[in-house]
Design goal:
180 residues, mainly alpha, globular
Length: 180
């Protein structure tokens, strides 16, 4: 967890997942970092088992890297009792929420520049439900299954597509009044 709890490493992993394999130099240009820095962090991510060298692309002069998995999921409660690991999971989620906020801010800034069909297609909202822990877990798994189904559906060649960032949060709260 500690290895993943670094903003640059999270960006590297995200870029590899979205754009596919790349070299440390290519990633350095995208992130405006030195190739030494990106190379170091890629090796750390490899130690954690989330990226690996793409030996089919690599040469003696350049190493290509790829993400080993499409997503990273874990149970936060698995780290209870291990304070450093739990704090690292909080750091990872904090960076993830900051990313969510940046995406939402960018959308609000650009919304009027988008074609109406994309503006109307966006999905957003919130709701307040009274659930058991089991119901919340089941709902989350169902939503996850729907997202996975759409992630793996074939991309139509004759239709316009865009990357879509999908956020899902189902968070229990102690008091609604305190949030309002």
């Amino acid at each position: 967890m500690r290895i993943l709890a670094h903003p640059l490493r999270m960006k590297l992993l995200g870029i590899l997942r979205v754009n596919g394999p790349a070299t440390a130099s290519q990633l350095a240009r995208v992130l405006e970092e030195s190739s030494g820095v990106t190379s170091y962090h890629l090796r750390k991510l490899a130690e954690a088992g989330v990226v690996e060298e793409d030996i089919e692309r690599g040469t003696r002069k350049e190493r290509w890297w790829r993400a080993r998995h499409e997503i990273t999921r874990w149970s936060v409660s698995d780290f209870f009792g291990n304070k450093p690991a739990h704090l690292a999971s909080i750091a990872i989620r904090r960076e993830m929420y900051r990313f969510h906020w940046r995406v939402l801010e960018q959308w609000l800034a650009e919304e009027s520049e988008w074609d109406r069909k994309w503006v109307d297609a966006r999905a957003e909202g919130d709701n307040v439900l009274q659930l058991t822990a089991e119901s919340l877990n089941a709902m989350g798994e169902e939503i996850w299954a729907v997202v996975e189904r759409y992630r793996h559906q074939p991309i139509p060649e004759d239709q316009e597509t865009r990357w879509v960032v999908w956020f899902t949060h189902g968070i229990p709260v102690r008091s609604l009044e305190a949030l309002l």
